[in-house]
Amino acid sequence: MIQVGDVLHAAVQSLGGQERPGQVAMSAAVEHALDSREHLLVQAGTGTGKSLGYLVPALLHPRPVVVATATLALQHQLVERDLPALVAGATEQLGSALPLVPYAVLKGRSNYACLHRAREGTPDDTGVLVEVPDGTLGSEVVLLRAWAEDQAEQELSGDRDSAPAHTERGWAQVSVSARECLGAARCPFAGECFAERARDIAAAAQVVVTNHALLAIHAIDGVPMLPDHDAVVVDEAHELVARVTQASTDELSPTVVDRASRRVRAAVGRDGAEHADALADAADALRSAVDTLPDGRLDVMPDGLADALALVREASRACYSALSGRGDAGGDGPGDSGGDAVRQQAKAAADEVRKVADRLVQDNEHDVRWVTQRGGALDRVPAGGPDRRAGSNELRVAPLDVSLSLRERLFARTTVVLTSATLKLGGGFEPLAASVGLRPDERADEPVGGSPAEAVEPDADPDGHDGRAAQWRALDVGSPFDYRRQAILYVARMLPAPGRDGLGTATLDEIVGLVEAADGRTLGLFSSRRAAEAAAEHVREALPDLDLWCQGDAQLPELARRFVADPRSCLFGTLSLWQGVDLPGDTCQLVVIDRIPFPRPDDPLMSARQRAVERRGGNGFMSVAATHAALLLAQGSGRLIRRFDDRGVVAVLDPRLATAWYGSFLAASLPPMWRTTDGDVARAALRRLRAG
């Protein structure tokens, strides 16, 4: 009988690594969870090798397993490094039992080039591409089209990650969303389609690597995006709630409605122009209504805005109906594929506008609605979403709580393994478990183990669920790092508490003293762009001989490259640097955190969630704000120790971590570093590292 431990050992050897006790314990626990069909939460600290810890039992499981990640970096690591090493190591162990397609990667349709779009060129409302000199959008698209043809000829993936350097606008000219796709029955290039080929390969694979967003669309929204599978492993699981929320958040602005009206006009021509005109008029009404509103949450929908949204909804519905009656609903042959594509794009735009307007106008207690100024303080939708150009205010709507959706539509239907270096908040798994819909009274207290053969298969229920209990187990396999010897946590207790006016002089001077003691080698994590820029300016003036880069000076990968290349440099930034940035070695011996990263008091979604907890009689601050802060603090401090010979100091310049009543909860979420509130001790340690 093939043993997980033997295959794990072979895979580790294939990577040239060394097996670690935490990795072995994790692989055994994941194997048990998959076989017994119990949910599992595994905290595996940095350096554990958690990827192989779940990939090995996933590969050996009798039925397919989906692995969902939050970042492209981890997805790339799994597909390019860990899984090939696992297959190489497992070949000798498994022989003919090795799955024919051991693994595949599957992304959303817009991540693959569309050959119909690339070859027949159905431009969106930016117009026909006529400029081709170097550096123009036209030249970029010409290059992307040539790349797509080359990918098709060689039967390669057509994946955006392998494309030449490009902008969002350029990629939009050679790709389509799922709504805009003609479909295999009507597209003349369906036989070569990159997205369809990726789906076919994934359908035959044992391990399917995807992302949190696609998992959310498949499980929460009920749109079949993933092949049949028996279990899901969620890596970077501390991000799951945020990614599911993001995938379920809709935006609507007059600019978006205007764009939809132009697409409809291009599709219907003169005969149906009245529908496009009505939608354009509705966009003007929405602009008049939304531009008079301040940023912030909409607890009560103003009458004028409700009327404008109703106009948008009805006009977009009429456009969709008009387009649906123009012979593009199907057929036996491909027909006029160029015209089909224009109509399909217009239908998708009109239907999306209708759907979001309808959701916004509904008085739904499960949704949070708010207004944000384009590019304003509350504008947190990542690049690649709606048009980011200056213009009218924008409306957003997001789910108040995703825990029930996750419980009923994910955990009730399949076995789920959640893993991350940060799952225990405040010293326990319960806060994270509650955020995904798992209840404390459903936790199994007995240790992981027992015979999988003794597991009882659940009965199916009439709602289509398989009746699987929400029982869950938790395991902390620790970290191979000796944090008490490798790292110091310095809390600047003598500094004043942070205020609303930005960084004070004492805090800025403290940053300079720490950076000087470390001779650069500093990653600065700040709660706002303004704070990061103020600190950068102050340090540059005080220590002009050091190179210091601030987020926004260049693209993040380029800034990280510069930081790693010059150990005496500093890198200051905001949320993008708190998570997922791997900077091992002497280049990062000091991590400065300016303040406890509580959500902004005016954050519409977080404040609404906090209020909802309080209405149920709970502690909204601890359940929402403190848990959010604990997670980010743990992630931020985790940037320091990335390998066995790393040493350094995490400096938290917010005295509340040591003095406030909630400080112990936050501190219990951090790695077990040696702690001090004496700045002289921290600076002396940095000088010793510098001398060494």
Can you put this structure into words, describing what you see?
- By secondary structure, the chain is an alpha/beta fold.
- The protein has four domains: 4-102 and 205-242 and 404-478, Rossmann fold (3-Layer(aba) Sandwich); 109-195, no CATH class; 250-399, Four Helix Bundle (Hemerythrin (Met), subunit A) (Up-down Bundle), CATH 1.20.120; 483-691, Rossmann fold (3-Layer(aba) Sandwich).
- Helix content is 45%, strand content 12%.
- It has 26 helices and 18 strands.
- A seven-stranded parallel beta sheet has the order 3-4-2-5-10-1-11, with helices on both faces. It has a seven-stranded parallel beta sheet with strand order 14-15-13-16-17-12-18, sandwiched between helices.
- Helix 20 (556-565) links the parallel strand 14 and strand 15.
- Helix 2 (21-36) packs parallel to helix 3 (50-60), helix 12 (273-290) runs antiparallel to helix 13 (303-324) and helix 18 (505-518) packs across helix 19 (529-542).
- The longest helix has 25 residues, at 337-361.
- The protein is globular, with a radius of gyration of 27 Å.
Largest beta-sheet details: 7 strands, parallel
Q: Could you tell me the number of beta strands?
A: 18
Strands in their spatial order, largest beta sheet: 3-4-2-5-10-1-11
Q: In the CATH hierarchy, what is the superfamily of the largest domain? A: P-loop containing nucleotide triphosphate hydrolases
What's the N-to-C terminus distance? 51 Å
CATH class assignment of the largest domain: Alpha Beta
CATH topology of the largest domain: Rossmann fold
Number of helices: 26
Unreliable runs:
328-335, 375-390, 449-469
Shape: globular
Content-based structural category? alpha/beta
* Helix share, percent: 40-55%
Domains, number: 4
CATH architecture group name of the largest domain: 3-Layer(aba) Sandwich
Mean of all residue-level pLDDT scores? 87
Assess the beta-strand content as a share of residues. 5-15%
